[in-house]
Design goal:
single chain, 275 residues, alpha/beta, Rossmann fold, 2 domains, 10 strands, 37% helix, 23% strand, globular
Length: 275
C-alpha cells in the first residue's frame, strides 16, 4: 500500500480550532505528495451551507499553503458523507481534527469509529489545535498478525517524505513467553528492513496489560509526531493488538494517529523480505 502522489487529501471541517488545525497540518504532506486539498463541510439543515465562509477559507488555505484547494458543502451525517465523498473523489487520505478532550466531540463525535472503520482510505486524526510543522519521529506499533505488516510500507514512505526516523514498539503480555520471543525476532527483522532503506530506526518491546496507554505513553516519551495503526475492527484474525485497542489509541492519543485500512488477504502486497 502507498499514499499516492498527486492525490486528494480530504479534510472534514466544522470551523472549530481543531478542524482548522487539521488543515494547517495537511500543508506539508500535500506539498510532498503534490496533492490537492478538498475541504468538506457537512451540514444538517438547509441554510447552513456556509458557502461564503468556505470560499474564504479555501482561498486562504491555498494562499498559505501554495497547494490547490477546493471545497464541498453537502447535507447529511458527517460520518457517512465523509466516507461517501472520500470514495466518490477517490481521496488518498482523510485528515480530521479532534477536540482536545479524551472523548470524541465536534467534527468527530461518538461515532468516529464508524467513520474510520468504513473509510475507503487511511485516516489521520489530530487532537487539539497545536500545529506540528513536519514529522521527525514516526511510532510504529507491531504485533504478529499479517495486517500489522502493511503499515511498514507507508511508514517508510512517510519517513522518506519528512526525513523522519521510525520507532518500532512491540507490545506483549509478559505471561506469554512464546509470543514475546516471536515478537522480538519479528520487530528486529522489520527494523533491519527499514534501516536497509536508509531510514533511522529503533525497536523496543514493552510488556503491558494496557496496550493503548503503553503505546501513547511511549509515543510521548520519544516525542513522536505520528502513530501508525491498523483498522482492526473487521479483522477475523485474533492477535494481542485488537480493534478495541486501535480505537482507544485514537480516543486517548494527544499525538496524531494514522489509521490504515487493511488490504484483502488475497491481494496483500509483499515487501520482499520474508517477514
Amino acid at each position: 500500500m502507498q499514499i499516492k502522489e498527486r492525490g486528494i487529501i480530504l479534510i472534514p471541517i466544522d470551523f472549530t480550532k481543531q478542524s482548522l488545525a487539521a488543515i494547517r497540518q495537511s500543508y506539508n504532506l500535500a506539498k510532498y505528495t503534490h496533492s490537492k486539498m478538498v475541504l468538506l463541510h457537512v451540514y444538517e439543515q438547509t441554510g447552513d451551507e456556509s458557502y461564503e465562509a468556505l470560499t474564504k477559507l479555501a482561498k486562504q488555505t491555498e494562499q498559505e499553503s501554495s497547494v490547490p484547494t477546493d471545497f464541498m458543502s453537502v447535507k447529511g451525517d458527517v460520518y457517512d458523507q465523509t466516507d461517501r465523498v472520500a470514495e466518490e473523489i477517490n481521496a488518498t487520505l482523510i485528515i480530521a481534527g479532534l477536540e482536545s478532550h479524551m472523548r470524541f466531540r465536534n467534527i468527530i463525535g461518538s461515532s468516529a469509529s464508524k467513520l474510520i472503520r468504513k473509510a475507503p482510505c487511511p485516516v489521520i486524526t489530530i487532537r487539539g489545535d497545536d500545529h506540528r510543522d513536519g514529522c521527525e519521529n514516526i511510532l510504529l506499533p507491531l504485533d504478529l498478525t499479517p495486517e500489522t505488516r502493511e503499515k511498514t510500507d507507508i511508514a517508510i514512505q512517510f519517513a522518506k517524505y519528512f526525513g523522519a526516523s521510525i520507532r518500532i514498539i512491540g507490545v506483549f503480555d509478559a505471561k506469554n513467553l512464546d509470543y514475546e520471543n516471536k515478537l522480538l525476532a519479528y520487530t528486529f527483522q522489520v527494523k533491519q528492513f527499514i534501516k536497509s532503506k536508509g531510514i533511522s530506526c529503533t525497536n523496543k518491546s514493552v510488556p503491558t496489560k494496557d496496550i493503548a496507554a503503553s503505546i501513547v505513553e511511549y509515543g510521548n516519551k520519544i516525542e513522536a509526531d505520528l502513530i501508525m495503526i491498523m483498522n482492526r475492527a473487521d479483522l477475523g484474525i485474533k492477535g494481542f493488538f485488537t480493534g478495541t485497542d486501535s480505537q482507544r489509541i485514537v480516543d486517548i492519543s494527544n499525538i496524531p494517529v494514522m489509521t490504515i485500512q487493511p488490504m484483502k488477504r488475497e491481494s496483500m502486497m509483499s515487501f520482499g523480505t520474508g517477514f
